[in-house]
Predict the structure.
Amino acid sequence: MNDACVILGKPNAYGSIFRFEGQASVFATKEGPCYRCLYPEPPPPGLVPSCAEGGVLGVLPGVVGCIQATETIKLIIGGGEPLIGRFLIFDALRMKFRELKLRKDPDCPVCGTHPTVTKLIDYEQFCGIHPTAPEPTPSNMTEITSVELKKRLDRGDALTILDVREPHEYQINRIHGSLLIPLGDISKRYVELDPSDEIIVQCKVGGRSAKAAEFLRSKGFTKVLNLTGGILDWIDKVDPSQPKY
């Protein structure tokens, strides 16, 4: 969106939300910075959780959306002081606003003095996003529930449990004996796995592990199952002694 706004010369009344925090600014104007001045490159795939994984306070979209609408009106009428070069952060828990100053980056790949991005690119590839896998059905055996996994572990089945979360998540809770390879590293470290093993892939709620399982299948792994609901479902139904996040 940022690149399209810069290329078309359209200001971007930006807003974002996550958990109890919101952000707002105005990017892609001639006199101010663009979003890539702040974040030139996307984070590694799987590092940033979705709203389903991380959660968001239900009223927060309304608060940030009103700020975006206000900035849009100010841009249209040419009045007031838009959030150009200003980054507004809203902490709903403490009911506080903070403001940071942003400067235009002369080396920005999009709006800088010598831009290297002059047309829209393949953003799914750029951000490491893979097409969402189809919903699994019992007949194709692509998923396993926490209860089924517990039964198989109890009877001593030889399973490799692959955790594709980040290291800090792994420190909070885990399935005993699981192997940690973050989703962002799976394309480089999948060679550490044995294609003949039966692999159960898990993350927090099942989204990242589904992507990892799909990748492994594309590399010839034929016995890969995704843990439905991830570690949170495992804690709910199998091991409630572990903390949740």
Summary: Confidence is low (pLDDT under 50) at residues 132-139. The chain is about 30% helix and 15% strand. The chain has two domains: 2-126, 143-237.
